[in-house]
Amino acid sequence: MPDQPHQPTPAGRPDAGPYDALLLLSFGGPEGPDDVLPFLENVTHGRGIPRERLKEVGQHYFLFGGVSPINAQNRALLDAIRKDFADGGLDLPVYWGNRNWTPYLTDTLRSMSDAGHRRILVLATSAYASYSGCRQYRENLAASLAVLAEEGREPLRIDKLRHYFNHPGFVEPMIQATLDALAELPAAVRDGARLAFTTHSIPVTAADTSGPVPGHGDGGAYVAQHLDTARVIADAVQAATGVERDWQLVYQSRSGAPHIPWLEPDICDHLTDVHAAGAPAVVMVPIGFVSDHMEVTYDLDTEAAARAGELGLPVSRAATVGADPRFAAAVRDLVLERAATERGLAPRRCALGTLGPSHDICPAGCCPARTPLPAAAGID
Question: Which one of 82, 129, 140, 193 is most buried, counting C-beta atoms within 10 A?
Fold first, then answer.
């Protein structure tokens, strides 16, 4: 079937059918000091982490008044998406649910059921393939749907939007943010500045089983997708500045046991190494994150910035896409793309880089956990 544009309704409005609602699905975060420990207990449920260790981690939040930025940023993104939908003539209500804090996913799905919604699209606030960024959200959806089924509710059909790490609406704001961060550096070191593309470290075994890479086998998508996005941004920055820069994909926010291998190098170790090698400055580009939440504001703006200060290394940090209007427009594009596909059309599928657009339906065995649970919105 030939490539077709997104199809409008007979009245000329964009058509999201067969879907009747969009759910923004995110991680959640505390919104006050009394929320911090209960939130961390939700995050680590079943992992046997001592309460004293949770109190140590909680200090990161207490530095910011016990409030994670993520919920406010999700509210801003909701506003941006709703505005874009309204401006673009797309009549599709948008809801929000979290994995670990209010508004909880099950409560949101219950509200959507009460409102009569039955075909729901999900946008997860994770752009890449991984267990915690994709499969675990699908497990959360399945668990919530099971609760609603036990309540005797009519079944909901839920589909998840594809990974959007290489959609222009995600990448282009990061390109501009990198250029803006370069401009913040002193002129004397700007042209020699390295780019450190940062993302969340995960266990090596999880990275190796994080979904298929076109032409390269069944695993390794997490690292491959980040590298492809980083390369697109680095090339665009070179084109804009006329300067070819060294760059590297590095990691942050490791939380696992010391004896389990996780992806490296850590951003703080990387800063130490490039400083020793003579780099005059570094721009940290958090391509692995949709918004400036706690793992950005603490791990980069606080911890990594402190390491750079100790070294006397000038650093700046690029903003994440957040509620950028281009990202909101990308969400609309992804919704209409998936809706057209469900109606049997072959819509244009936007993607930069070399990997092409990601799959719509997660294949069986993609991003498994050690003890995987039932998962919705894919092939279990």
Answer: 129
Helices (H) and strands (E) counted in the chain, each on its own, are 13, 8
Q: Can you give the residue ranges of every domain in the chain?
A: 21-164+323-342, 168-317
| Whole-prediction pTM | 0.95
21-164+323-342 — its CATH code? Answer: 3.40.50.1400
Q: pLDDT tens, position by position, for the chain (380 residues)?
A: 334 445 444 457 899 999 999 999 999 999 999 999 999 999 998 877 888 888 888 999 999 999 999 999 999 999 999 999 999 999 999 999 999 999 999 999 999 999 999 999 999 999 999 999 999 999 999 999 999 999 999 999 999 999 999 999 999 999 999 999 999 999 999 999 999 999 999 999 999 999 988 876 778 999 999 999 999 999 999 999 999 999 999 999 998 788 999 999 999 999 999 999 999 999 999 999 999 999 999 999 999 999 999 999 999 999 999 999 999 999 999 999 999 999 999 999 999 999 999 999 998 888 988 787 899 998 87
| CATH domain 168-317 topology | Rossmann fold (3.40.50)
